[in-house]
Structure formats: structure tokens, C-alpha cells
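Your task
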Amino acid sequence: MDADRPNPAPAHPAAIPGAPAHPAAPPGTPVHPATSGTPVKRILVPLGTLGAVASAFAYVGLVDPNQPGHYPVCPLFRFTGLYCPGCGGLRSAHDFITGHFAAAVHSNALAVTGYLLFAVGWVLWAVRSARGLPLRFAPSDRQWWLIGSVVVIFSVVRNLPFGSVLAP
């Protein structure tokens, strides 16, 4: 490009050949992928994500983590004997997918909470995507600190004698 010529302004996405036009957007408004296309096209990413998560759960459901040799040992537990926040997560997933919910909670209550939060978040994401609305998840600094505090407290308590009910 010549140094004396200014860069051309980017074209409106609808002006690009093959790009979908969005009739509700005024000219010059960028088109968000979640708001363009048919509901089936808009839900493909949430469905792909669900497929990947379901595949991982299916694998853990078929390959029992209680049998040694299939999965690596947690390095923190191996070298220190302390449980990290994820210790027992694979056993929890295996128990959850095979319908042993009490055992899943006993293996890792925080992981089970995460499974349930993922399910709720995924449903919200899928519904909003199908309607052409983007999902906005922007926790504040206070909320991030709260999440981190819960994880740290869970980790500390499960390693203390009175918190052995939280240990895997």
C-alpha cells in the first residue's frame, strides 16, 4: 500500500460478498455472529460444546478412575498428601454419569456444583443463541474474589480433620 494514501475504511459486513446481511442492524453496525443466521446455525457452537463435554463425560463413565493405571495421580496429592480442589473430580464425574449422585458429591462436592452450574449456563447460552442474543458473562472483581475464596476455603477445609467429609 502507498504511504501517501490512507487506509480504506473497513467495509460493512453485509457489503462483503457471501457475508449475511442483518436487516435489523442500521448500516455501519457490525454484525455479531450470534445474531446472524437461522436459529439452527446460531446454536451450532453451544451444541458443539455440549458434544465435547458429553464425550469427555462418556469416556470417564466408561473408563473407571477407581481402577489404577488409567489416569495420572494428582501431583499435589502425590508429593504432599494434600487434596487440591480438583482431587476426586474424575471419580465424581464417573459416579455422576453412572447415577451414583451421593458418591459423586462425596468424591468432590465442588465439581458436582460445577457440573450443575455448567448445565444451567449451557441452557441459558443455547436459548439465547437460538434467539439471536449473545450470552454475556462478565463477573465483577468482587464476584471473582468470591469464587476464588470458595475454592480456597473448600481446599483448606477438605484437608483438615473436621472437613474429612469433603475429602475424596
